[in-house]
Request: fold
Amino acid sequence: MNSSQLLGITTFAYLFSAMLYIAIFVFRAKKLGLFATLVTVAAFLINTAGIGLRWQESYQAGIGYAPLSNMYESLVFFAWAIAIFYLGLEWKHKNRVLGAFSMPFAFLSMAYASFSPKFGKEIKPLIPALQSNWLIAHVITCFVGYAAFAVACGMGIMYLIKDRKTNAAPESLLASLPELKVIDDIIHKTLVFGFLWLSAGIITGAVWANSAWGTYWSWDPKETWSLITWFVYAATLHARFTRGWGGRRIAWLAVLGFISVIFTYYGVNFLLSGLHSYGGN
Amino acid sequence: MKKTDNMVWRSFASVRLALFTLLILATTSIIGTLIPQKNPPEFYIENFGQRTAQFFQMLDVPDMYNSWWFITLLLLFSINLIVCTIDRLPNVWQMVVMNNLDTDPERLEKMPHRQVFHARGDAAALADTAATLLARNGWKAQTANKPGGPLLFSQKNAWSRLGVYAVHLSILVIFAGAIVGSTLGFKAGIMLPEGRETDTVYETGTGKPLPLGFTLRCDNFNVSFYADGATPKEFRSDLSVLENGKVTIDKRPIIVNDPLNYKGITFYQSSYEPMQGFNVVITNKTTKTRQTFQIPFGQKISWTEGGIDFGVINQEVRSRMGDVNRLKVWFFDGQGEPSIFWMDNNATQTVSRPTAAYEFEASQVYATGLQVAKDPGVWTVYAGCLLMLIGLYVAFFLSHRRIWVYIAREEAADRCRILVCGATSKNKIAFEKEFTALVDSFTHDSTFQNA
Reply:
């Protein structure tokens, strides 16, 4: 058994998990609930083992680095972070319909990592710039934040779907979704959590850049886009805290913010050029 | 005119302006990620045409993050932060330090979380019981005697109301650090061949020479590669610092991510350049004599005392940069045929001659590329970053929670009415749980009866 096999299994396990949650939502198959959770926990554990094994393999290959250093590895970690964030959310809210709007993100991230021909999956030695403990701190803080924003986006979509027909009959599909007030609260708390981690991610990146290049901020496209994302969420939180925005508007902003996250993460690497280009392969 | 009535003040203090600047900063920042920054003017003419390039130059688009209008936006953002803080902080500060025992009992009846009990007995004794129950739930209470009866109050994390202002302040601290760095510091670079020294570096962008105030020497540079032969594993320079002819730092190795700091100036390993030449060490194993040379490629060199002529006559290059993989050496001590051999770069070759054996050590000469930075503001920036994280945590996850217990003697009956009430600055759901737990312990105490 090697890490690629484990991570391959992870992809399908997340697919299965996402499908179960969607079935729970669409067919109101509440009986599947516990099973869906168990599958998700198992998928998460396989994902964890895959990352751990890859770490060990890199040592066996004589390179030895935390598997967080390229696009493939970051996507795998992104899926991992989404899964654990969602499991925490499910545990807290005791509502499995949330999974139908969260776990697809974990699956998509793994699927993209596994099937896209764009980036290599082999363990490659680290270039000197990446040989730093700040790498671990930077990637973990960023991706915990990104995972929260992915879930916030899912909750935003959920809100917008439910809100389209507020007067749905009690037995309708949408009635199984949490109350709008509850979704709104989840979105808000998730955004707040993500914002703290995004800030930490930008800061660890700046400290690392300073120790490697002597400049903590150089307006490189990656830095700039992370700041743009930070501005978007900062504006969202201010609109909510002080102007009392909520509901649809915040739901839309959660979606918009996540588009900015995706561009920061993915768009910058493949559409723009800059210091961060090693993330692209 | 009171400041609260001033239109200009009001608009600078408004969240509306904050939202506006945040969104304008976000959207304008995109421009510089789409249009490459800090290229020479010809670049823009070539890629965007004469007229667009002219338009760009007019608006400083090629260096937009330092342009007057972007700096103005950041300034607007800062003024907004300052004015908003001056405007709101006094009231919030009032909330933090206020004496909650002064609260009018009338207002307590309107608190968001309340529960009323009744109890027989002396009000002062009931106050003691209530204080014990509060303490058991983690609420340390103070007491005051109101005309109607004793009032107990307890609070947690009053100072957490300041969290959001700590975040605002942190942004200003970061800006201050950045201004200090850009006015009193510099960014520069230098390409320093092995064995050479410099007391000047050249400013990034302008190329202006900047004196260091001391001398920096590169003793040695090495690049190592992974087994694949193409991915660099480590760039390492050994740097020495000389001041007034005295060596103050002796051959300190630096690698990427581990720079050398001397008197506030930091030297970062950033690149390297292979040069056309070699460091050569020849040792006569018989006489134990030894000599070091730095020689150019393709020239005959003489070691007169050793009676040797030698030179590098060919080389095999690994990369387009000109890293030498192997070199071909011509070696002659005047006896018989000269020795001609290929050897690896960075290696030692034994040369056997009729009357003596030699060790020939050769490594290509490199120049190390250093980035040089002086930034006296960086610790201010880091302090701002730390303050921001602490402030965000406090602002988001801690709340100011307050509990009052008011024990009022009822005139008609021989009993007291006990009002337990509370309020929180945020996170109502968590507070509700805490409040319910407190109310439950009152309910379970035989002294009190639910109203």
Remarks:
- The two ends of chain A are 25 Å apart (CA to CA).
- Residues 277-281 of chain A have pLDDT under 50 and may be disordered.
- Chain A touches chain B at residues 62-63, 124-125, 127-129, 131-132, 134, 185, 192-193, 195-196, 199-200, 203, 206-207, 210-217, 219, 221, 224-225, 227-228, 231-232, 234-235, 238-239, 242-243, 268, 272-273 (CB under 8 Å).
